[in-house]
Amino acid sequence: MNKEIIYAHEHITIDLSGVKKDIDCFLNNKKQTIEEFKDLKAKGVSTIIDVTNRGMGRSTEYVAEVINETGINILQSTGYYKEPFLPEEVYKINEKKMAKILVDEIINGIDETSVKASVIGEIGTSLNKIEEMEKKVFEASCMAHLETGTPIITHTTLGKLGLEQIDIFKNFNVDLSKVTLSHIDLSGDLEYMVRLLDTGVNIAFDTIGKNNYQPDEKRAEWLKVLCEKGYSNQIVLSMDITRKSHFKDNGGLGYSYLIDNFLPRLYEKEISNKHIENMLVNNIKNIYRLK
Length: 291
What we know:
The chain has 291 residues and is α/β, with parallel strands linked by helices. The chain has a single domain (5-288), classed as TIM Barrel (Alpha-Beta Barrel). Helices cover 42% and strands 15% of the residues. The protein contains eleven helices and eleven strands. The chain has helices at 17-20, 30-42, 60-70, 89-92, 95-107, 132-148, 162-171, 190-197, 216-228, 257-268, 273-288; strands at residues 5-10, 14-15, 26-27, 45-50, 73-75, 77-78, 119-125, 152-156, 179-182, 202-205, 235-237. The longest helix has 17 residues, at 132-148. The model has no long low-confidence stretch (mean pLDDT 97). Belongs to the metallo-dependent hydrolases superfamily. Phosphotriesterase family. GO terms for molecular function: hydrolase activity; zinc ion binding.
């Protein structure tokens, strides 16, 4: 396996604990993150896409320390998540002002630092409904994308409403090859996955190991079919670790589960190394123009 593995959808820190009323949803375990990332680095991980944005507990200082301690490249995000986790400013300003904030974080830097956002995301929709403020965020994100060319990562609740998200992007003439729809593995619907891929977007199987939603055996089976149909250049993989209980030391699977447990499962399915390198290395490099 190529030694430039990229995790497509993670949160270096995230705080959804207030709304969820669950301290487990405050990911601030810096020491554990650093130790697990050192292990990832040793196993060939070069880069992680951090999709924590405005109002989700983003911290450039925290991320900088993780980068310095581990040597892993971390790309950071701008944007707004979804209801009910949106910050107050989303309700107070219009789409154009919102887009201006995103563009500023892409061109000049996040939170008055020199760290520039490489990603617009994760921007999300609710279960079976796009809320008014969510649509507003999507439209502002489209404007920022058109001005800067920055890739977009979305959140789909349980993998749903991907086609509706794509409709918004099409209305703004967004480059769909720069869009990644997250959590599509949670849909459990192979035909739907193909319909999404046929539009030209990328999809993420980024809840690897969350067998309470979908079993990894099914994820591997769907990936085999999709790869055989020629879609491996539009699929990315990740874990989406968001809770303290997800860390290995706390009894969770830990970040390396993707490499240690899921990757062998893909090889067992006789998915070729070429397809696996597309999903773990080449696609993200192409989307973000990484060398």
